[in-house]
Amino acid sequence: MKTRSTFSLLFWVNTSRIKNDQVPVYARITVNGKRTNISLQRRLPVSNWDSNRGMAKGTKQSSKLLNKYIEQVRAKIYESYEDLLSEDKLITSQSIKSKFLGEDESNKTLLELFEYHNEVSQEKLNNHTLRHYKVTQGYLIKFLNEKLKTTDMSLQSLNYSFIVDFEHFIKSYKPKDNQKKMSHNTAMKHLQRLRKMVTMAYHLEWIIKDPFVRFKSSFENKRREFLTENELNSLEQFHSSIERLNMIKDLFLFSCYTGISYVDINSLTPDNIIFGIDGNHWINTKRKKTNSFLAIPLLNQAKNLIKKYEGHQRTIISNTLFPCFSNQKINSYLKEIAELSGIKKNLTFHMARHTFATTVTLSNGVPIETVSKLLGHTKIATTQIYARVINKKVSEDMNKLSEKLKVK
């Protein structure tokens, strides 16, 4: 005997969308813990809703009509569920919704996929990552409008040719604000996101074949810029009469000695300083980008910087370890610092993280597995990019040694 899925139905009002004291009514279908909402296209005063019974209060004609409509919707949703069972089809909250709305899954469109992806990903992805997906979707809409002369298209129409044409479009697209054309790796990131959305459609059985099967994505390995030991020393010795430049320098150095990204430094508070298993001070926090936990023993250089800003007016107001600046201002000020301290490289805040991985840790014999954990990488392959940089330095040092030995 076939086991039924756990199925439940709830009627509710969305108080976050209140307008003129009126709230919209929704039906929520839940199957095996996964839920989907259906708008009933009805509103009522928030005070007229009985959340325990899932229906309108009172004996007014408007309440009676709404409750009658709710019962009709309830009966039709249960009927859709039973129909899917009798047809021996996959039972999901989305399939019940589609059956109720009379939608044919084979006629799903690209824009419907975007909408569905964003809805189900709100709890899984952080806002930063979700924003990247919306940028990709924006380029896909531009591609549909400018190249295919349409506003949407059926998912069944997606093929290998569509992917290749989209890749060419984004690589050759010239922004109107005089920015540079998209790099190869950025284009691959957009295609990677499209691929994930299309794979979702394939698993949902919205498409019968995956158009990405023959597509091979490729990323160019780029040199990760970092500060050498001499450059790091020059930066430590830098001092300016302009206080903001000194603060930015300190923030950069803290990242050089901890590997923590700027967005994560910005949210550090005294509560993130703990005593580790060795009895020393550690930073205990969570990466916003990957949601992974970070536990970093503090080097003396990092401890001194924290101590320097204890009781600082700006940190007291924000209850953070360091003064807060916008990322745009940080990178602008770093260019001033680089020029004044004689560093010829294009200094950006992310370079501090690279410096921690190379000059501070790997160059000093810290195992790559430890460095990977300190950086909060989810894959050690990401950390191995830095190891290749170090191997290049080892090669250069050995060549110098070889020349010295020839002289002797």
Please provide a written account of the structure:
The protein is mainly alpha-helical and 408 residues long. It has three domains: 7-103, no CATH class; 107-203, DNA polymerase, domain 1 (Orthogonal Bundle); 229-399, Orthogonal Bundle (hpI Integrase, Chain A). The protein is 50% helix and 12% strand. It has 15 helices and eight strands. It has helices at 61-86, 93-101, 110-121, 127-146, 160-172, 184-203, 229-237, 243-256, 262-265, 300-308, 313-318, 327-341, 350-361, 368-375, 380-407, and strands at 7-13, 22-31, 34-45, 49-50, 55-56, 273-275, 281-286, 293-297. Strands 1-2-3 form a three-stranded antiparallel beta sheet, with helices on one face. Strand 7 and strand 8 (293-297) form a beta hairpin. The longest helix is centred in the C-terminal third of the chain and has 28 residues, at 380-407. The chain is globular, with a radius of gyration of 28 Å. The model has no long low-confidence stretch (mean pLDDT 88).
| Cross-sheet strand order for the largest sheet | 1-2-3
The CATH architecture category of the largest domain equals Orthogonal Bundle
Determine the number of helices (DSSP H or I, runs of at least 4 residues).
Answer: 15
Radius of gyration: 28 Å
The domain tally reads 3
Nearest-integer average pLDDT: 88
Largest sheet descriptor = 3 strands, antiparallel
> Which geometry do the CA atoms define?
globular
What is the helix fraction of residues, given as a range? 40-55%
Query: What name does the CATH topology of the largest domain carry?
Result: hpI Integrase, Chain A
Specify the structural class.
mainly alpha
Q: What string, H for helix and E for strand, traces the elements in order?
A: EEEEEHHHHHHHHHEEEHHHHHH
**N- and C-termini, Cα separation:** 86 Å
Into which percentage range does the β-strand content fall? 5-15%
Query: What's the name of the CATH homologous superfamily of the largest domain?
Result: Intergrase catalytic core
Flag low-confidence runs: none
Give a count of the beta strands, DSSP E runs of length 2 or more: 8
Q: Determine and state the CATH class of the largest domain.
A: Mainly Alpha
